[in-house]
Amino acid sequence: MVSDHKYKRTVNRLQKRLFDSMRVGDRTGGYSVIEESLRYNIRPADIYTYIIGGTLSAIGQLWHKGEITVAHEHLSSQLASNLIEVVLQKSPKLSSNGLRAVVTTPVGERHWVAAQMFSNLLILSGWEVDYLGTETPGQDLAQYVSSTKVDVVALSIILDSNLNQAVDCVQNLKDLPDPPVICVGGPVIKENDENFSDVFVVRDPVSAIDHIEKVMGLAPGRVSLQEMLNSIGEKVQEIRKAKGLNQESLAKLAGVDRAYVSLVENGKQNLTMAALFNLSSALGVTIPTLIQTNPEIE
Ligand code: B12
């Protein structure tokens, strides 16, 4: 497994590169950062929150200080939106969980990036998602939810001034005969806000999804096959190096080719149980040690 420290360093490096590209409106550079992030197996939630989100915040600071114009900021936001879709298209998705979510922002809230990110993370987790874009009026939202089978409604609120409209959305949804689970998130939301009692108040998209899925009775911590293969590959490499083995010597001990070990370490080999058994024996660890998935970065 890549160490947490190395993982964070890679994320920071990619974030700086994306910032350099976005600052000058370099679309090709932006795409190559995302391609590289995916090649390094950076988790989609981390690409969204730290690499793309971190870059937008830094761009926002330049705008705030008057160092770039609104036109530059708009260009960055549009590019961010495109990159968010690239991550969705190129990442492994969990199989359908049969649940449907609606994601939007309340009237007045024109910041859409976080809502788009959250929609895509739900899709990657196996959800069916209706992403409505920004500024859906409370009554219309409730009408839409009652006419479609929706399990969860998620609202993103970035500005304080939009809290009232968010409360209106929540009230309209709660008044439905069969209300959905409601989840609100964003930097201005406080956990003990009495306006949002009976509502999930969350800031971090990953814990939000874990939380919602728990409430909906889904098994926690589901991972896709590709994520599992990536994680096994990282563990095999970490343990091999810790034992001072090169790929060739591990291959000999496990009775496989060196190329096979390389494929496994890069998450490109769909291992059989026998291969997993041989590799774990050669490394002197148990099979569960290899198949345990990565911890989150903070
Ligand atoms: C781009 C941008 C815009 C774009 C919006 C397009 C877009 N990208 O969506 C435009 C130009 C339209 C815009 C307009 C304005 N903006 Co603006 N904008 C930004 C900027 C630079 C980036 C926002 C962004 O996308 N961040 C990246 C995302 C990923 O981060 P995030 O939104 O915080 O979301 C994360 C979490 O909060 C959480 N989250 C958020 N929602 C949800 C929902 C759920 C369910 C969950 C689980 C999690 C979750 O998950 C995300 C990932 O970690 C920020 C600067 C910044 N520091 O963020 C300012 C910023 C948000 N804007 C600001 C302001 C003041 C405005 C304007 C009022 C400016 C003006 N005078 O017109 C208008 C208001 C428009 C409106 N009515 O909504 C302020 C807000 C300050 C405040 N809290 O009051 C900021 C912080 C800039 C600043 N430092 O002053 N903005």
**What is the domain tally?**
3
Strand content: 5-15%
Helix content: 55-70%
Q: How many strands appear in the DSSP assignment?
A: 5
What is the end-to-end distance? 17 Å
Overall geometry comes to globular
CATH third-tier fold name of the largest domain? Rossmann fold
Whole-number radius of gyration? Answer: 22 Å
Please identify, by name, the CATH architecture of the largest domain.
3-Layer(aba) Sandwich
The CATH class label of the largest domain is Alpha Beta
Low-confidence stretches: none
Counting DSSP H or I runs of 4 or more residues, the number of helices is: 13
Sheet of most strands: 5 strands, parallel
Attached small molecules: cobalamin
Sheet/helix structural class = alpha/beta
The CATH homologous superfamily of the largest domain: Cobalamin-binding domain
List the secondary-structure elements in sequence, H or E.
Answer: HHHHEHEHEHEEHHHHHH
Q: Roughly what is the average pLDDT, rounded to an integer?
A: 88
For the largest beta sheet, what order do the strands appear in spatially?
2-1-3-4-5
